[in-house]
Amino acid sequence: MKNLLKPWQASRPPQPPAFGDDAAHRAQHRLAVLDDIERGHSGWFWATDAAGCLSYISPVACERFGLAVEDLIGKPFTSLFETDPEHPGERSDRPLQFLLGAHNRLTDVTVRLVPDRCAPGTRRAWWALSGQPKIDVTKPGSDGAFHGYRGSARDITVEYERRIEDSRLAEFDSLTGLANRHRITRRLDSILAAFKGTLRPATLMMLDLDRFKQVNDTLGHPAGDELLRQVAQRLTRVVGTAGEIGRLGGDEFQILLADQEDRGKLGELAEKIIGLISQPYSIDDNHVVIGVSIGMAIAPFDGTEREDIVRAADLALYAAKHGGRGQFRFYSSDLKDEKEERRLLEEALRDAIASVDGGDDSWEEPQLGMVYQPVVRTDDHAVVGFEALMRWEHPERGAVPPSVFIPVAEDTGMILPLGALALRQAAQDAARWPHPLRIAVNVSAVQFAHPEFPGVVADVLAETGLDPERLELELTESVFMGDSETTDAAFKALKALGVRLALDDFGTGYSSLSYLRAAPFDKLKVDRSFVDSCTLSDQNSAKIIAAIIGLADALGMETTVEGVEAFDQRDVVCAKGARLIQGFLYSPPLEQAVVLERMAAGELHIPPDGPKRHRPERRSVYRRIGVIHEDHRYEALLRNLSATGARIEGLVGVPVGTSLVLDLGAGQLAVVTVSRSEDATIGVEFESPLVSDGAGGLVTRYRASPYALAAAARMVSTSAPQFLEVEVRKRA
Ligand code: C2E
Ligand code: MG
Ligand code: MG
Fold it and tell me: Pick the residue with more confidence: 150 or 665?
């Protein structure tokens, strides 16, 4: 066997000489005492020479390491020991090499033997290493020559491992294993601080699950927890090593992406996340569907401090959620007011509901009311029924569209009184019609999920005396997102009342055929979005309309095609089998007074009337932008904008082929080439296409950093302008 301990360990410890002997004896005595200390102590001593190589180590250390002294002595200290690579900040901000190289004093630096020095089968202990540089200050003028280190080390394995485990618990979310709020905040701080100096970008994505609360409430907390775990797994799958994911608590997640500023790539990633998170989950044999909204802010463009970036991402998330959910948004400065606007809208809606509830003796005009849009049979233009649509006329804001206030009502629970109000008013009005035509009323999924809903319908029927056969409730596929037992019970109860059920906006949601099988619908309503594009070269819309009508026919359901505005659309949808149409080509929604008048006059047919051809809305923009050519900046008006090109008005004499830079605002600089030039109008093509902003708008992939913009602002123009800038007015 190898002698591990020679030459320090003698077979018998030296006997201490009596006190008061000569110097040799005293030295021997010291050695013996030291030897005892080394043996009895859980730690060890060490020393290095001026070159940093180990010159002494306690025999016990060799024993612990399972190594021979020869394996250690004479080797550079830093080739033997290392600080914890996974927790570099532990007890020392600097690596060992740095500390030793700088001849710093070491105080409890946590180290361990480097992996390739470890004898097989030995436990790698953690040591708190302390040591002092030995600097010679005895000789005058020696300017403190360094002679190496002298130090000690103490076993701290147990406490260090506990500490690491504690900090892991303190840094990671125990449910999902993702970083927790504390860690992700710290990471964001350190990334922003590190990047500020180097002008590197970083993106913060803020995610909020849609409908998570419903799952939690209906299926219980364990199911909610399982859902969060599965969401975390999916996020990890999409994001991979591109970023760090954290869960802030509840259903809020954050993703930190260092060195990412490309809004094209970020938008794609956000879409991928939205797509994957929206796929159904299987939880305890339940089929659960949720969604996610994403807000993004990019440093340094949207801020350089953590507070600014978090606030910006938060505002973007807020806009994404209220823009219809399942969307992403980039922060832009005009989002600032949206939150406040939303709060005011909520308040106003509360007042509006009160204005109706106030009753007849209230001094207030009711702000909310119902209008009725005819549903017309295509064969003979006979009106077969009406859809009740709510209208809100605010004293100062004017007409607020349902697409704005219905989501607010759903989010705040105000949809319950609002929905009941719509149902009651519509039933009351329909009961007064001289002709017993059908009345369709929209029902929000939130309303439908409420256990009292069938009771409310029954009460309204009883109060108004409306024949249940005449009442049609329009539901959307989102009613299936709730708990399936409640949903089934509601369907049963409603069918027992004898009312009809229609599936609204069909084709826009999940359009799962299993919904059609599971629920007793009498009608499918083909969404307007298909009609909008059915005359365009996009032939799919027309095919989808045909397929939906065919499907409904096969299942013995009626169909209504919504949103027909022009004759060419009517021709297409009729050719695809549409028998009922609801659209401006026949009639807009009408006031109850008008409905009564027409019915009294026996006008129960409406001939179509409208444009021959449907003109798709072309988005024209009228925005002042900057056009930069060489070192001149011109003001111009941006007209049409597409991903690949734009039309600009206000510059005369710009030759085709000229290279320009468009300043689209907020650091969005786009390099373009002039492809057309006529009078004051130029057509330009983007060098790299614009990307989606998540809200139907277009933005540049990259932005000029605030630092670059500040530098550009100091740029002084030296030459004369080459183009003529003319005033153009916004055309209506
Ligand atoms: P919806 O149920 O799909 O209603 C049809 C919408 O299409 C109505 O918009 C109607 O005015 C519009 N429309 C009908 N024909 C045409 C057309 O030819 N061209 C165009 N451009 N539009 C047409 P409205 O009244 O703004 O309602 C929007 C949505 O708000 C409704 O969609 C419905 O989901 C919701 N909503 C309206 N009233 C109520 C209500 O009382 N309760 C609930 N829960 N939701 C309501
Ligand atoms: Mg409807
Ligand atoms: Mg609809």
Answer: 150
Q: What residue ranges do the domains of the chain occupy?
A: 35-162, 172-335, 340-357+365-600, 619-725
pLDDT one-digit tens code per residue, 45-76 = 999 999 999 999 998 888 888 888 888 999 99
Cα–Cα distance, 640 to 621 (Å, whole number): 6
Lowest mean pLDDT among 135-139, 339-343, 607-611, 648-652: 135-139
Ligand 1: does its nearest atom lie under 6 Å from the Cβ of 198? no
CATH class given for the domain over 340-357+365-600: alpha beta
With bands split at pLDDT 50, 70 and 90, how would you rate the model's confidence at 572? very high
Q: Find the mean pLDDT for residues 277-293.
A: 88
Ligand 1 close to Cβ of residue 406 (< 6 A) = yes
CA 366 / ligand 3 centre spacing (Å): 26
DSSP assigned state of 66: T
Ligand 1 and 565: CB distance under 6 A: yes
Q: Which CATH class is domain 619-725?
A: mainly beta
Query: Which ligand number lies closest to the CA of residue 526?
Result: 3
Can the peptide bond before residue 300 be classed as cis, meaning omega within 30 degrees of 0?
yes
CB 577 within 8 A of CB 546: yes
Q: Could you tell me the pLDDT band of residue 90, with boundaries at 50, 70 and 90?
A: very low
* Residue whose pair of structure tokens reads 């606030």 in the numeric block: 311
Q: Which residues are in the CB-under-5-Å shell of ion ligand 3?
A: 504-505
Q: Which residue type occupies 230? A: Q
Counting ligands in written order, the one closest to the CA of 402 is 1
CATH of 172-335, one of 3.50.50.60, 3.40.50.1820, 3.40.50.720, 3.30.70.270: 3.30.70.270
Tell me how far the alpha carbon of residue 123 is from its chain's centroid. Answer: 45
* Shortest-distance ligand to the CA of residue 506: 3
User: Cβ(296)–Cβ(329) under 8 Å?
Assistant: yes
| pLDDT tens digits, 385-415 | 999 999 999 998 899 999 889 989 998 999 9
686-695 residue pLDDT tens: 998 898 888 7
Q: For ligand 1, what atom is nearest to the CA of residue 474?
A: 2
What sections of 92-180 are H helices per DSSP?
96-101, 157-171
Provide the mean pLDDT of the chain.
Answer: 87
Give distance in angstroms: CA of 389 to centre of ligand 1: 6
What is the DSSP-derived secondary structure letter of residue 617? P
Rounded distance from Cα 504 to ligand 2 centre (Å): 6
Probe target for ligand 1 pocket from 370, 442, 471, with the most ligand atoms within 8 Å of CB: 442
Is the backbone peptide bond immediately before 7 cis, with ω within 30 degrees of 0?
yes
Contacts of 391 (CB under 8 A, 6+ apart): 368, 369, 370, 371, 399, 402, 589
Cα(578) to ligand 1 centroid in Å equals: 19
Q: Which residue has the tokens 């030295």?
A: 27
Average pLDDT over residues 285-289: 84
**pLDDT tops 90 at residue 145:** no
CATH fourth-level superfamily of 35-162: PAS domain (3.30.450.20)
What pLDDT does 692 receive? 87
Q: Is the CB of 472 under 6 A from ligand 1?
A: no
Please work out whether the CB of residue 582 comes within 6 Å of at least one atom of ligand 1: yes
> What's the pLDDT at 538?
61
User: Do you know the residue count of the chain?
Assistant: 732
Residue 475 Rama label (left phi>0; alpha psi -120 to 50; beta) = beta
The reply to whether ligand 1 has any atom less than 6 angstroms from the CB of 507 is: no
CA dihedral 223, 229, 233, 238 (to 10 degrees): 80
